[in-house]
Write a structure and sequence with these properties.
50% helix, Arc Repressor Mutant, subunit A, 5-stranded parallel sheet, alpha/beta, Rossmann fold, 222 residues
Amino acid sequence: MSENLAGPPPPLIKTAIVEDQKSIRESLSIFINGTPGYSCTGGFRTMEEALEKIKFDLPDVVLCDIGLPGMSGIEGIRIIKDRYPKIKVLMLTVYEDDDRIFDALCAGASGYLLKRTTPERLLESMRDAVAGGAPMSPEVASKVVALFRDIRPPDRADYQLTPHEVRLLKMLIDGHNYVTAAAELGVSVNGVKFHMRNIFDKLQVHSKSEAVAKVLRDRIVR
C-alpha cells in the first residue's frame, strides 16, 4: 500500500479587491477564482462600497489600490484595520513614491506591491501576508530599507527594547516574516510571536506593520 506524501492542501486564501478600473478588477477576480487554493470574495470599485459589503464574507486579504474615487485606499486601510484587525491589506498600485509607501505602512498595510507585479508573485505575496510576512515589490523594499538605514535616531529614543528585540525588528523591516525570522534566529515561531507581543507592548502598537512604521517614523532602532 503506497503512502500519500502530498499532505493536506494549503488553507483557502479568501481575497477581496478594491480597484476602480473595471478591467483590472475583473481580470484579478477571474485569475484568483481560477487558481486552486484562492477565492475572490468580491470586487469593489470604491472603498465606500468595500466597507459596506466585505462584512458579508470577510476575506483574509484585501488587494487595494490607492487612487480611488471618493475615499482613498490609505484612508480605507485605517478603517478596515480598526474594524477587522486580522484582515491583511496589500496595496496594489502604480504609485512608488516615498510618501505614499510610508503613509500606507503607517495606516496598517501589510505589504506594498506595484501593479506590474507578476501573477505568480501576487499569489505568493497573498499567502506570505497571511503567514505574517510583509511582501513588497523589489523597488518598494529598496526604498523602505534605504529610508531605515539613512535615518539617525535621537540619542534618547529609548523604548527599553532588548538587543534581541531590536534585531527582530530589523529583520522584519528587511522583509522577513515570522517563519523565516524564527529560522534565522534559531527559535520557534511561537518564540518570535512571544517577543513580538513584548515589542507591541513597549511600542504601544497592535500589529507588525504598525511596529515597523513606528520604528521608521520615530527613528527608534539604530
